[in-house]
Each structure stands twice: as C-alpha cells, then as structure tokens.
Fold:
Amino acid sequence: MNCEKARSWILLEQSGELSAMNSRRLARHLAVCTDCSRYRNDVLRLTRLATEHLPAEEPSEEAIHRILDSAEKVRPGRLIRYQWFAARAVAWAALFVAIVGGAILLMPEQPEKRAGPEHNLSAIMAVVDENPPEEYHSRDAASRLEIERELGRHLLRIEGLLDEDLMAEVLL
Structure:
C-alpha cells in the first residue's frame, strides 16, 4: 500500500467509514511506516482537540419544531396518500396473480401428443424385424407382407388409431 492511500484511509477510519478488511490492511501498513503512523497520531490529536474545545452544533428544540411544522404545511398528508396508493397497487397485483393463477388451474389439461400412426407402425415393424416369429421366415415375401399388415392393423386397433384410409396409405 502506498502512503497516499494510507492517509486517505486514516481519514476514513477516523470518521468510521473504513471497512474492517481495509482497517486491517491499514494497521499492517502503519506497523511498518513511521510517517503514516505519525500522520495518524496527528489526525487523532487534532480531532480530539476540536471536539473538546468547539461547541457541538445542534439545532434547538424550537428550531426543530418550526421546521417540522413548516414541512407539514407545505405538503400535508402526503405520506397518507402514498400509503393509500401503495396499498391499491399491491391489491391490484394480488388480483392479477389470482386471476392468472386461477385461469391456469382451471384450464383443461392438454392431452399428450402422441406420435402419429406412421411412427407407431414403424416402431412395431422394427420390433417384428428384430424378433420375427420362426414361421415368418419360412414363408414367401407376399405372406410375410400380409402378416405384417395384419399385425399393424391389430396394434393400431389397440392404440385406437385404426382408420381404413390411413391404413391403406401406411401399409400399402
């Protein structure tokens, strides 16, 4: 730390504005720097002399009452109006949150989007291709295709997706 910074920190310390961490850093600097230690002692001595010999400047009770009375005359009831406005703003915000929250809670649930029958059929066919029944391989291509179509129809019926036009489009 340089001495210029230490001297400004000494003034901050004297007024009570220096943080605890910077106060420790200042103490380490003062332990090794005699010039800054002397400066700090001078500041402390001058401050003590000033507080002992100079009168404290505080306003009298009469002056305080006069100021407060004049402030109330200039803006009477301003605090009450502000509180009323703040209370109304909070009430409107709460109402808005209640309406939006209620709307969200009362909204009908959206059904989960399912993959189309084409995707289901592709997945079914992939399973069949990976694990075909033994009789499947012993048949000719036309018979295997008919087995696949029947299996597809059956599974689509189970899924509730059977539509003859769609079946014709997907399976043919």
